Amino acid sequence: MTTITAIETAHYRLPLDPPLSDSTHGLMTHFELVTVRLTDSDGCEGLGYTYAVNHGGSAIRALIADDLADLLIGQDPDRIAHLWDKMWWAVHYPGRGGLASFAFAAIDIALWDRMGKARGMPLWKLLGGHDPKVMAYVGGIDLELSLPELMAQTDANLAKGFKAVKMKVGRDRLHEDVERVAAHREHLGPGFPLMADANMRWSRDQAQAAIRAFEPYSLTWLEEPMIPDDEVGHARLAALSSTPIATGENFHTIYEFERMIRVGGVTFPETDVSNCGGITPWMKAATLAEANNLRVTSHGVHDIHVHLLAAIPNKSYMEWHGFGLEQYFTNPALTLDDQGRATAPDRPGHGVAFEWAKLEPFKR
Known about the structure:
Helix content is 38%, strand content 21%. It has helices at 57-72, 80-90, 98-119, 123-126, 147-159, 174-188, 204-214, 231-240, 254-263, 279-291, 302-311, 356-359, and strands spanning 4-22, 26-40, 45-53, 133-139, 165-168, 194-197, 221-223, 245-247, 268-271, 297-298, 318-320, 341-343.
């Protein structure tokens, strides 16, 4: 029987140049990358990774190294559901989401990558193989840009082939957000997919005022208008307006997705494989959305999400994230076709490979 023989984890603190900002996280100066390299007794290696912003990477790495790795050594790497359950119950008391789900994610992604490589199959086919073409949108981290800078950023992204754009909202004064959304709509023209992301900034009454003010501008969705814990507030907001709501990037368990879907608080469940526990729960959340006639979008980690969205029948858009790691990859970067779609690669596993020497100066 093939067994897991080694799990190596590392933490890298990558500088963001220039630093980025949004309405709740403040100035983001560093991308905290945590990697897992899992090797089996046949010599096949799986790569997994997750991330945090500014803080938390060392805690995730420590949880993997000190509490999870020893659980998996000697185990059958093909029994991914069993291994995920084993990790969940091992740290259930201090975990049940949070940092534990980030740690699970890095290991789970490595397990699925290893399985794809062992079978010579790309991840998107291993998981279902629905359609390798995935519509992408570009997510700008642009709350503090001036209007001319915002339009220039959008024009640069359109020149790259993007056919959908997301902007940040959540300024101190709502009229400034409305002015920026209106300017963006005029710049892009009617019908062009435009999303707005508030990064959980508002209370219920502020979110209600904002969604009403944005209605004339036909947003594809309003993202994270409130804290993810306020399911009732999301449901009331959804009932108030025809503007769709996207949320879920800060959900760390499938139970959070289930509750938000059940109360009718989300139109586009927004799954993030790097913090919901990995590919195993991501696919469960996608199936839950399908059972409720909802289309899934993604947050971050687009090099992994292109596979997951390609695997399922109920995908919508993939976020092409502002924290791209392409400069540290040895594999070819994703590209867009003339319709703004990315194509899931056919390399075995997820196909991502790091240039470790480039990462080494940033190792903690």
